[in-house]
Inverse folding.
């Protein structure tokens, strides 16, 4: 690829069309795509009804496609289905001996598990859970490394109608505690430890610590992974392998209502308290299945690898549920991308002939920085499709991915979605879309996305605005667990649809639309460009963090009086965290940026946050200040802090500042 090409891509002129070979074998072709799109526009219910019938196994058909009681939706009402059945049982006739999971441990362990074997293990574990008294809708927290038993646990919960809440294995004991308490979980499934860059993460110890402050958990089931020494508490803690050895293989999947709660997944919001995003059964599995077929073009012959952890929504929808529902072969890798070295991913791709590879822009940028020599050692010829998720991908990283990993022959699907959306909403379709590097391109059929201005009116082409979704879709969030009010306020109170024509004398009705929290722009060719978050939520290495969450942790540190957290651009992580900290009266300390070496409090504070929330939240910079810039009403002006953190001269209005000298002081502190 020449420099000229790169430049032209940076000004977003060039498009990348799929090759004829790809087009001819694609699951979704242009004709069918056009038909689906127009059906969704003209016959919304018929559109979803047709897809639900063709793609999902039902024990009993639904009576209404959807019910909308703003802002609560129900899909496929009174239908009966089961997610575990869709992912396992329905494949047994044709795929019992097909590999469902190829699992690779960080220490080189490898297991291949067929659909038949996975089904048996899930049935056995379902029986274990039932024998421990788990009832439909009970909550079960899963806190595990990426090992097959984690997938088995998720599928067993969905099989019996228990609601899982997976907590990312990199999270701290405080994070587990808050999630267990919010969900009032009855069971925790964990492992003795997990491997991370050669070290053992003490998962079970973290659970033990958390459970000291929680009284809903009755049993802890422990998978043996690292064999490190752990304490097993009498009557509470049970070994997974012991339970399984005496459990029956026969278990019929529960016939669950379409709207039966499926899982809760916690994500950061604008306040310190994480939001428990609730998804339900039928709509979720339908969209997970469809998008896996359409966007990843998955075939029976493919080996598919999504590098996300099951602790995130991507791991739910595109490691476990979507691909297994499609009967695919899924690769799981327990380890990090740079251990033992930066070539490990490419080695895995070559050795396992991976065809479809889905990862995050932050990983791609880290690979770019590590140097091309790690890639040159491998062929990567098995790859036919690449994907990205989690944040906007800058054209430079896109091009690098396209030429170095995709060898200029693989389409790249830049998939936009959220924990709340359950599945991909905006993405190229690999056999159809002419791609512009850095754009998630177009909403999928059935998805009515729009960019609007402050007033909720559609923006003109090329104008920046807010991304909203104007019609419900089956895999949408149903509520924030236990907090309908927050659900309504967060997603449904900011924008309304254009008024429908009111009948004579009646006021026109404006329906609420779903607000994504993202800024976006649509170009003159109708391509969507995502511009990042517009609220106080930060994306660091593709993971959402609330600035409030980090702030409330900082102020728990005994010497801290006040703190404000903002993001600033970072080459690999996308955003880095800068914390402005006001210490208590009698304390003084030197900031990170102080040339005369920062004081010990800086490191201490950083570690304090990493320990309390998890390493992802560790601030990159701590800056001490005497005061924070506030408006007269006391609101911290984060815009100004963002400018300072990213070294920009402050632009925009500063007249609402309570004390104008603060800015000067903050700058001279730099
Ligand atoms: O800001 C958007 C960004 O990630 C947010 C959702 O984060 P989370 O719920 O953790 O889910 C991540 C995995 C689906 C969005 O509001 N985001 C996600 N994908 C993209 C993206 N931004 C730009 N381009 C994307 N492809």
């Amino acid at each position: 690829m020449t420099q000229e090409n790169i430049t032209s891509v940076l000004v977003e002129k060039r498009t990348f069309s799929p090759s004829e070979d790809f087009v001819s074998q694609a699951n979704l072709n242009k004709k069918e795509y056009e038909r689906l799109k127009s059906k969704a526009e003209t016959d919304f219910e018929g559109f979803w009804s047709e897809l639900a019938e063709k793609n999902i196994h039902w024990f009993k058909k639904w009576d209404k496609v959807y019910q909308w009681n703003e802002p609560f939706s129900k899909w496929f009402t009174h239908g009966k289905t089961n997610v575990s059945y869709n992912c396992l049982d329905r494949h047994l006739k044709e795929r019992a001996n097909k590999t469902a999971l190829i699992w690779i441990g960080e220490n080189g362990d490898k297991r291949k598990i067929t659909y038949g074997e996975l089904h048996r293990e899930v049935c056995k574990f379902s029986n274990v859970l039932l024998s421990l008294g788990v009832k439909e809708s009970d909550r079960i927290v899963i806190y595990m490394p990426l090992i097959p038993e984690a997938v088995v646990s998720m599928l067993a919960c969905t099989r019996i109608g228990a609601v899982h809440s997976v907590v990312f294995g990199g999270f701290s004991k405080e994070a587990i505690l808050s999630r267990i308490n919010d969900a009032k979980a009855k069971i925790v499934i964990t492992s003795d430890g997990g491997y991370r860059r050669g070290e053992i993460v003490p998962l079970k110890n973290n659970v033990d610590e958390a459970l000291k402050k929680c009284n809903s958990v009755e049993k802890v089931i422990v998978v043996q992974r690292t064999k490190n020494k752990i304490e097993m508490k009498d009557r509470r803690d049970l070994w997974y392998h012991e339970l399984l050895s005496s459990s029956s293989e026969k278990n019929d999947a529960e016939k669950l209502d379409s709207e039966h709660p499926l899982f809760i997944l916690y994500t950061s919001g604008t306040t310190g308290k994480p939001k428990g995003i609730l998804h339900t059964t039928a709509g979720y599995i339908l969209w997970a299945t469809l998008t896996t077929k359409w966007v990843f073009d998955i075939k029976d012959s493919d080996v598919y690898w999504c590098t996300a952890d099951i602790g995130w929504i991507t791991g739910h929808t595109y490691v476990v549920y979507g691909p297994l529902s499609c009967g695919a072969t899924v690769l799981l890798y327990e380890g990090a991308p740079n251990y033992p070295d930066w070539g490990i991913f490419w080695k895995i791709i070559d050795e396992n002939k991976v065809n479809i590879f889905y990862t995050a822009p932050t990983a791609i940028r880290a690979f770019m920085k590590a140097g091309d020599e790690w890639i040159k050692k491998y062929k990567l010829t098995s790859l036919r499709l690449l994907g990205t998720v989690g944040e906007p991908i800058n054209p430079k990283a896109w091009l690098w991915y396209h030429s170095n990993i995709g060898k200029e022959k693989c389409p790249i699907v830049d998939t936009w979605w959220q924990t709340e959306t359950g599945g991909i909403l905006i993405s190229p379709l690999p056999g159809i879309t002419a791609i512009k590097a850095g754009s998630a391109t177009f909403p999928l059929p059935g998805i009515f996305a729009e960019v609007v201005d402050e007033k909720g009116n559609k923006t003109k082409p090329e104008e920046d605005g807010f991304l909203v979704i104007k019609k419900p879709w089956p895999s949408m969030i149903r509520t924030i667990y236990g907090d309908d009010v927050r659900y309504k306020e967060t997603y449904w109170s900011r924008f309304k649809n254009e008024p429908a024509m009111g009948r004579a004398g009646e006021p026109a009705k404006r329906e609420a639309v779903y607000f994504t929290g993202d800024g976006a722009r649509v170009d003159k060719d109708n391509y969507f460009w995502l511009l990042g978050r517009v609220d106080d939520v930060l994306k660091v290495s593709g993971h959402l963090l609330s600035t409030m969450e980090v702030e409330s942790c900082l102020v728990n540190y005994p010497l801290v009086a006040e703190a404000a957290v903002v993001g600033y651009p970072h080459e690999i992580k996308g955003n880095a965290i800068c914390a402005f900290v006001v210490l208590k009266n009698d304390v003084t300390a030197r900031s990170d940026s102080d040339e005369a070496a920062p004081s010990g409090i800086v490191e201490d504070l950083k570690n304090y946050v990493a320990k309390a929330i998890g390493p992802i939240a560790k601030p990159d910079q701590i800056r001490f200040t005497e005061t924070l810039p506030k408006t007269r009403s006391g609101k911290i002006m984060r815009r100004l802090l963002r400018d300072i953190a990213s070294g920009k001269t402050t632009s925009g209005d500063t007249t609402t500042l309570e004390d104008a000298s603060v800015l000067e002081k903050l700058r001279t502190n730099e």
